[in-house]
Give the backbone structure.
Amino acid sequence: MADALFVFMRWLHLTSMATLVGGMLVGRFVMVASENKLAPDAREAFGARAAAAYRPLVVTAIAGLLLSGTYNLLTNPGHSTLYHTLLGIKLLLALHVFAVALLVTQPHNPRRARLMTGTVISGLIIVAISAYLRRIY
């Protein structure tokens, strides 16, 4: 039973991260490029509809990351100072991604593309830190 819970939490963490960061990548590099081909009125409506459709996924992904991340932290104690330092940086970046992802999905946001760019960068740094932490763990 413990193995099944571990696998489920790992799956939940990875799929939640992929949904959040992957959605920002698609939004920034596909949706924004598509929006720019539309007339200004249609652009705003398209962006608002896309953001509204993505918001439930963002909220669900954040909840999944918080739940599975807390589980992972509590079930894997006793790491080095370097591990905890990098984990702290990762968690601060994750809070940035969470906050900005919620802002990106707000209607009538003229800075949506710029916000997504920063979120994509932070998200990819988180993935890199995670890969390194997995290696030293």
In short: The chain is about 85% helix and 0% strand. Residues 2-136 form one domain.
